[in-house]
Write a structure and sequence with these properties.
The complex is a heterodimer of chains A (123) and B (180). Chain A has 123 residues and is of the alpha/beta class. Chain A contains five helices and five strands. The mean pLDDT of chain A is 90. Chain B is globular and about 55 Å long. The chains are: A alpha/beta (123), B alpha+beta (180). At the A-B interface, helix 1, strand 5 and helix 5 of A face helix 1 and strand 10 of B. Strand 5 of chain A pairs antiparallel with strand 10 of chain B, so a sheet runs across the interface.
């Protein structure tokens, strides 16, 4: 039996989490969700995941902080991390790239493009 | 003879359907005219920054291809993120909601659905709603001073509300994916 690709989405907006959950789960992914970077880190200490999709602007720990923490450790150093954000500035995109993000997706997201990107980066 | 004090002019920014604007400028006024559309005004009293969005529809239909700039669920997110990027804190945000009228009897009550969505969104996000003026069958004009949080909302002729159809503005880089 083929193992389902497991995705962790990290977003402080409950509405956006619901939209992401619908878009990804109906495409056959196993979806877990966290409401900020800190919650994501705590969840990732205990769970395995194939791809992380994270927002940037979040309370407690933002998306940049999450990427930095994951890339600074050993367990999730090579985990694909897609940034999904309303931010469109090149400065922030380049910052995410330098910190080790795998890709950058601008909201509003297109479900088909998002799913294609996840399939492409999932190991 | 003493000269009159210089008073800088107000800069009025029209918030069109599908847009969100944030400012801390003391002379800035964000304005819009609404029919069935809803505008959300957010204000952080400590940081003295505010913003307004203007959305046409609440959420995409189930199974829809995705979210674009016509939908409240995107424009709410955009507005909140712009507020946070300008120094606001989510727990301090205070919200006003305007619009959501049903201008034409017998047509689908899009305004009612928009109003319901906006209230539910704020409740889900735990953002305090301090004032709303929604529903009815008249268009509204909203003028919002983002640095002070002051709002004026008045009814206007329905012919002034041009927001009943999606704007023809092309979607800019909607959902574009860049893999590094």
């Amino acid at each position: 039996m083929t193992k389902m690709t497991r995705i962790l989405t990290v977003d402080d907006s409950a509405s956006m989490r619901a939209l992401l959950n619908h878009a990804l789960s109906t495409s056959g992914f196993d979806v877990a969700q966290a409401d900020d970077g800190q919650s994501a880190l705590e969840w990732l200490q205990l769970n395995e995941v194939d791809v992380v999709i994270t927002d940037i602007n979040m309370p407690r720990l933002d998306g940049f902080g999450l990427i930095e923490a994951l890339r600074g450790g050993t367990r999730h150093r090579d985990r694909p991390i897609l940034v999904l954000t309303t931010e469109s500035s090149d400065e922030k995109k380049n910052r995410a790239r330098q910190m080790g993000a795998t890709g950058w997706i601008v909201k509003p997201f297109d479900a088909a493009k998002l799913v294609a990107a996840v399939r492409r980066v999932a190991h | 003879m003493a000269s009159a004090p210089f008073t800088p002019a107000t800069t009025r920014i029209t918030v069109m359907q599908g847009q969100a604007r944030v400012s801390a400028g003391p002379r800035v006024e964000l304005s819009t005219v609404l029919g069935s559309c809803v505008a959300t005004c957010l204000f952080d009293p400590e940081e003295q920054v505010g913003g307004m969005n203007h959305f046409l529809l609440a959420e995409p239909p189930a199974g829809g291809a995705g979210v674009d700039e016509h939908y409240g669920v995107y424009l709410m997110e955009l507005l909140i993120n712009e507020m946070l990027a300008n120094g606001a804190a989510k727990h301090r945000l205070r919200a006003h909601l305007y619009g959501g009228a049903n201008l034409y009897p017998g047509m689908e009550a899009i305004g009612t659905a928009n109003a319901l969505f906006a209230r539910n969104f704020l409740a889900r996000e735990r953002i305090t709603l301090v004032r709303e003026d929604m529903g009815g069958n008249a268009a509204r004009r909203v003028d919002f001073r983002p640095a002070s949080g002051m709002v004026r909302c008045r009814t206007v002729a329905n012919t002034l509300a041009h927001d009943e159809r999606p704007s023809l503005r092309p979607v800019v880089s909607s959902g574009e994916v860049e893999l590094f």
